Amino acid sequence: MSSSDNQERTERWRRLLSDTRVGSGPRSSQAEDAHRQLDERNDYSRDYDRIVFSSEFRCLHDKTQVFPLSTSDYTRTRLTHSIEASCVGRSLGHQAGLRLKLQGVELDPSHLGTIVAAACLAHDIGNPPFGHSGEAAIQHWVGQRLAPPGAGTKSPFATEAEWRDLCDFEGNAQGFRILNRLQSRERRGGLRYTAATLGAMSKYPRPSVLPGSRQKTKGVVSEKKFGYFQDDVDLALEAYRATGLREREPGVFSRHPLAFLVEAADDICYAVIDLEDSAKLGLVSMERACQLLESVLPEPTVRKPPRHLETRMAQARARAIGKLIPKCVDAFVEHAQDLEAGRTETSLTALKPDVRAQLEEITDFTREHGYWSERVLQIESAGFKTLGGLLDMFALSVVAESPNAEEKKLRQLLPMECFQRPEFAAEDEAAQKPLRRDEAIQRLTPYQRLLCVTDYITGLSDSRAVELYQRLSGIQLPT
Fold this sequence. Notes:
Radius of gyration: 23 Å
CATH architecture of the largest domain: Orthogonal Bundle
Number of strands: 2
Strand content: under 5%
Number of helices: 23
Shape: globular
Strand order of the largest sheet: 1-2
Helix content: 55-70%
Number of domains: 3
Structural class: mainly alpha
CATH topology of the largest domain: Hypothetical protein af1432
Largest sheet: 2 strands, antiparallel
């Protein structure tokens, strides 16, 4: 490759690794610059630390990974899954950076490792209680209870896109919203993460309604779901354009190359780790689980496996992850230039047929014997009713034009911070008296009020959601 080609790729990566802090506007003051010089961390490490210290990240300790409300001390939650995915992501990013540098791209490999690690930490931060079952519960409730605009009945939504935001509620879009709006709510951009980190965590950089209301394109992985709500469109466009992502249509972008590494880290962890959890809970045979993980190795191990099955499982899990990481890095590097230009729409694991076959065999087995076990299905069904019940209470109370006595009490239970927005920050600060909750609600559109409710409910842990629903339903009164 010529030096001019290397320079062009280097410039592209400099933009992809943009340290622009989304929502911050022009660069900081001299005082802020001086403070930054005293801080040995780079901007991506600051992103990582901001996620770790956020309350939304801590809440993941009691959110479902696969097995809801597990009584086992061993079973992973969304928190431990995110930490493990972050470790795998750091290895993927750093190794990919080293390989790109060997190709002549001038970059710091550790920056790629840190960005991918931070994005992995945040990739599930928007998940509601009970995981994907919680998403389905919100989608079902909105579809049943709230009419789309133009349906012949009164709708709280001004556009189809607003309705779709909630009718197709998506944890990925909620994650983007948490990072950019719900942390440090009084200022635009929230905690103001770098465009690079936000790009890497965005698996689906597009709105809920595609241009012309067209259907998503089959096989285009970045269109499978959506990644930002209409309420957050300005911040999303700012983040994606700052990194130079290919904008195929207005508001519809190709993925950031590092988003493929984040996805690979997630794919590796949920396949390998969920199988291990299923075995630990006795839902699948420990012997069979060990065999499936050992099949990931390119050749049979020459050493006799440990007699103790738990030790064998731990070794098989570590070796399987250790073999999958370089294979995904190989796929990334082989297709790097297409990824950089936004021309590839296939996951890294799918680009390696042997990896895809191995992971599909593991996930199919776990799905049948673990994900669909009787206990999991029972609790997910209960969670479905829990979230639907909370939405019945809170969502209907905030959109009511003349709330009744019960709805007024429910409004009082929603924290005032739910209704805080940066465009009102100066006005609120200048006010001589505290803003009343009804006044705060009234200045929002019905769509924004509903987002405030989903913000609140998705921020609950599994246990807290159940407890709150039981208390508000009179099943369990406060003691």
